[in-house]
Amino acid sequence: MELKGKVIVEAGHITEVYGPVQALRNWLIPRTDEFYFITHPFSYSKLEGSTVTSYKNGFKDAELKGHRRSGNRFEQWVKDAFFNMRFLASF
Questions:
Q1: What burial class does residue 73 get, using C-beta atoms within 10 Å of its C-beta: 0-12 exposed, 13-18 middle, 19+ buried?
Q2: Residue 16 CA to its chain's centroid (Å)
Q3: pLDDT by residue (tens digit) across 26-62?
Q4: Which of 9, 24, 71, 81 would bridge with 36, disulfide CB 3.0–4.6 Å?
Q5: How far apart are CA 27 and CA 68, in angstroms?
Q6: How far is it, in rounded angstroms, from Cα 1 to Cα 26?
Q7: What is the rounded CA–CA span in Å between residue 37 and residue 53?
Q8: pTM of the full predicted structure?
């Protein structure tokens, strides 16, 4: 599958432990011209909040910090969904 010339966005919930979300990111970075990695921490993790990291031609370009993690899981999922939609609408 040819990914060059396409804009790829990956969004996922993460913890401090390396997992499939990070593995997919590492596989996509060198195969795309423009890649955006949106992360949301699970409510039980110690990570601070949501972020968007952009990669251009295989290199980190910029990082945008989003909202902080909430103790209420439902509230957190709603914030995460709106964060994703707002970011995608900015294209």
A1: exposed
A2: 14
A3: 999 999 999 999 999 998 889 999 999 999 999 999 9
A4: 9
A5: 27
A6: 16
A7: 5
A8: 0.91
